């Protein structure tokens, strides 16, 4: 196949794992181009606040996320990448309905010991991949702006249903692994092994590693859908649709407005 041309402007890629997480983002697009398929995934091109954007559904898990990230960079010419979705809260004080903007990523199920220390990615000499400083800073500012009146993003019935009272935005470590953490004992084990971790998901650290390899700036924002315990499966699809997707839409809108009026393009991937 003939490769698609790289955008002359800095193109932003936005990844989501589930269709429900992406619905609100598709609605934001202007000048939307026909759906394109590649490597078993679907991609939507358009513009947000005048900036070229590609939306992609990666599916669940680290391999699926890494494949989709590679396609976004190699085939669609993405030069900045953002992940929006949900996560399970780990740290005390990270509640359902809160938002986590990552400053770094770690694979909690990476264990090549005794050849390498637990959690260290073999041959990289590191356990943690950092968010791009500029993009992450803007994402944090966008999240705080968008959610400053977060009560109005969801209807009162949904706020009551999910116990949402006051939205907090956290900034810190996001850990990823190829299992859905849904038992109290598992969550406690993760907290003991990784006390700095704010939340757990199944994709972000894999995307961070691919972006590190390509030198592409990456940042991630996750809405806390559960406490990664025995109640983690309760009303999960409903929460994503009624809460997380609306948060993501508001945060991405705020981010694109911010980047469209700020100097520089965030193209400073952290080592």
Can I get a quick summary?
The protein is built from 7 helices and 10 strands. The chain is globular. The protein has helices at residues 19-28, 62-74, 133-146, 156-161, 184-193, 204-214, 236-260, and strands spanning 12-16, 36-38, 41-48, 51-57, 80-89, 99-107, 128-130, 169-176, 197-201, 218-226.
Report on the architecture of this protein:
With 271 residues, this protein is α/β, with parallel strands linked by helices. It has a single domain (12-258), classed as Rossmann fold (3-Layer(aba) Sandwich), CATH 3.40.50. It is 33% helix and 25% strand. The chain is built from 7 helices and 10 strands. Strands 5-9-8-6-10 form a 5-stranded mixed beta barrel. A hairpin with a 2-residue loop joins strand 2 (36-38) and strand 3 (41-48). Helix 2 (62-74) runs parallel beside helix 6 and helix 3 crosses helix 7 (236-260). The model is unreliable at 1-8 and 265-271 (pLDDT under 50).
